[in-house]
Amino acid sequence: MRTRPLKVALLGCGVVGSEVTRILTTQADDLAARIGAPIELAGIAVRRPHKVREGVPAELLTTDATALVKRGDLDVVVEVIGGIEPVRTLITTAFEHGASVVSANKALLAADGASLHAKAAEHGVDLYYEAAVAGAIPLIRPLRESLAGDKVNRVLGIVNGTTNFILDKMESTGAGYSEALDEATALGYAEADPTADVEGFDAAAKAAILAGIAFHTRVTIDDVHREGLTEVTAADIASAKKMGCTVKMLAICERSADGRSVTARVHPAMIPLSHPLASVREAYNAVFVEAEAAGRLMFYGPGAGGAPTASAVLGDLVAACRNKLAATTGAGESAYTQLPVSPMGDVVTRYHISLDVADKPGVLAQVAMVFAEHDVSIDTVRQQGKNQGSGDEVAVEQGAGGRRAGEASLVVVTHRASDAALSATVSSLRKLDTVRGVASIMRVEGE
Amino acid sequence: MRTRPLKVALLGCGVVGSEVTRILTTQADDLAARIGAPIELAGIAVRRPHKVREGVPAELLTTDATALVKRGDLDVVVEVIGGIEPVRTLITTAFEHGASVVSANKALLAADGASLHAKAAEHGVDLYYEAAVAGAIPLIRPLRESLAGDKVNRVLGIVNGTTNFILDKMESTGAGYSEALDEATALGYAEADPTADVEGFDAAAKAAILAGIAFHTRVTIDDVHREGLTEVTAADIASAKKMGCTVKMLAICERSADGRSVTARVHPAMIPLSHPLASVREAYNAVFVEAEAAGRLMFYGPGAGGAPTASAVLGDLVAACRNKLAATTGAGESAYTQLPVSPMGDVVTRYHISLDVADKPGVLAQVAMVFAEHDVSIDTVRQQGKNQGSGDEVAVEQGAGGRRAGEASLVVVTHRASDAALSATVSSLRKLDTVRGVASIMRVEGE
């Protein structure tokens, strides 16, 4: 084993950073054996140097992150601060001073991955970020390397633990969204400001990263269609159950049917209970990958948390260190296909639409006509009493038309249609006198 | 892009080899873009050159595999022949002539992986074998690289599709072993001679490979305890159901509690229906990995078949080609822990034992005494009529002792105990006059 240790600096020492430090210390011998040289922790940049951090050597702490990445003797910089700036500048500076970078920063990678990759390549160093998507689950590396000889057509995943926890609670207890969110907050699964999770920003960043890698093109978070889960109701979940489905917050990256473009989107959707993603409970993550030769693969595990994220960071760190020792780099960005990202209107899928309608003869015929006018084919129609999901369902067959005074609820499930056609259909439906309101629209995926 | 193509030779052109050839041809541009240089298929060694192989260029076929690997201008040799010899010699010769090797050969890797790795390292080339375990599922690379900074404590998996198909059929239809095997054979899931699958040799080879990588030590197939599934009965499966379990053929690699040794074994076992592996149906494979920081991860997908296996082979081929271009190699064997493999007697788990006993007072007390004498603690006892699994169960509580003329069946589920203690217990039970026979012993895992 070579004597000179590999010098590693850490930017950030929160939940993940502390865990990385702990493992670097307690597993030092194993890491050295696996890398071929010991790791020396050269410095840790923090904002609050006087905060007590158990197991973190106080003499390594500094508030001057810029000076740390400019040292010039670092082999690898591990970034676990998060956010865009000052992190982007720090990472770029690290590259310029010859260090490879391991990052867990989904927001930055999804916003500006291409320029970071270019900068790393320019300076002959690595940029790894397994921890940015789905925590401990090996996903970036399998997509980039194990499937490098295959053609990925779809990535469909639960990549946000907070929203999966909320939906799982709603499903298992019948709770509404607010109640489930409160429980998630109380248990530490949701942050005080849950916006990034519940509005889908976190999942959208991950979808952008996954789509770029899966399709060898460039996708940023701005390319990802995003809908949050705040409007999912207990009635939606009850309605999903009736269809043999469950509601999940999904990140979906797809190659178009003609292969000339891709789409990336994040939204709540119904999936059949028989789909492997349906049984992903609590805050777990799971990602389904469909590739032409490999078929359907699934990767499952904890998507967040200090230790799982640290596991992913350390896997990347070992890889970056091995490359430094061998004076080489791993595969860089692969964006050669330059496939454009199509708008949401081009996405083709199925829809579950719940309408509040006047309860009188002819309504179903009117509604069906609107769908037909927009070439959206109906799979099933279900008419039920206003108190959806309570079990007091009436007249079920298409054409039967429940007869009750006042209002009724009509649930339509379509065959595959473009999002644009569906939107146009819904606009027309809203104009019907007999349609009092569109209670919910949810996509049906995974079939 | 550099002009000189990377020269690749293929050893074997059966189901997997044909698929590799097809993808090399149809996806040539994508592969070239991902590697950074085109691949030139330099030759294909086959036994029967005149067999019609659609899409395989006849002019590339040769029966002289030795001359092919000795060409000296090959960058990578892909081996999809299988078996120990002449493959070992061919691979070694390829290394000696400067070629990296991608192999799908579990038998060879499990028998002699260490010497092949040493030979590859000696000649500065790569040896990759993702396809040797669980077909298309990325597993070797995630274990070797993504989890390189973590400590794996257990690998628990369904790694043989044939036996999973048979058990799934037995479970879903109530069929016996022979009937289910016949169906597997008719559908092409089982070979004419199913020995390698049903006796666990195939799974044992995979367990040896996984254990070696997971624990950074050397494990060969001879170190793996192996039991086939030919003795699993419909009664066992019915009994598992009563416990809220299902029966799966598992490969289990574990680090001992004191961390000083490892074990590797392959046998049918009961696992709770709530365990993610319980819902793996038909011929699918899935592997559960438990690591200290990452927690519980699962990898799921098709474990065999031409296209899935080709996907894994091509991922390795891209990696080997990239390394050749960069004049480097990937990480080699990691066996630094030198942890010994303990015998099966040291394995600690739970057991489900089904006894045929005389149906008279005091039998349960006698049986319980034998367990106590060997320090094997009983969790539950269930007594039932001879016609197991038919639902005509009688007296259930421990100590109640069903009273029927003739024989009864006693099902004992233990707490955790060593395999040695359980074996000693069973030997003693067989000596009791009141125990007419030991109908089955099955381990209970995944809890």
From TrEMBL, chains A, B:
It catalyses: L-homoserine + NAD(+) = L-aspartate 4-semialdehyde + NADH + H(+); L-homoserine + NADP(+) = L-aspartate 4-semialdehyde + NADPH + H(+). InterPro entries: ACT-like_dom_sf, ACT_dom, Asp/hSer_DH_NAD-bd, HDH, HDH_cat, HDH_CS, NAD(P)-bd_dom_sf. The active site is at residue 206. NADPH binds at residue 106. NADP(+) binds at residues 11-18. Its cofactor is a metal cation. Pathway: Amino-acid biosynthesis; L-threonine biosynthesis; L-threonine from L-aspartate: step 3/5; Amino-acid biosynthesis; L-methionine biosynthesis via de novo pathway; L-homoserine from L-aspartate: step 3/3. Its EC number is 1.1.1.3. GO terms for molecular function: homoserine dehydrogenase activity; metal ion binding; NADP binding. GO terms for biological process: methionine biosynthetic process; threonine biosynthetic process. Residues 352-443 form the ACT domain. L-homoserine binds at residue 191. It is an enzyme of class 1 (oxidoreductase). SUPFAM superfamilies: ACT-like, Glyceraldehyde-3-phosphate dehydrogenase-like, C-terminal domain, NAD(P)-binding Rossmann-fold domains. It comes from the Bacteria. Keywords: Amino-acid biosynthesis, Metal-binding, Methionine biosynthesis, NAD, NADP, Oxidoreductase, Sodium, Threonine biosynthesis. Residues 382-401 are annotated as: Disordered. Belongs to the homoserine dehydrogenase family. PANTHER family: HOMOSERINE DEHYDROGENASE (PTHR43331). This is Homoserine dehydrogenase. It comes from Actinacidiphila rubida. The lineage of its organism: Bacteria, Bacillati, Actinomycetota, Actinomycetes, Kitasatosporales.
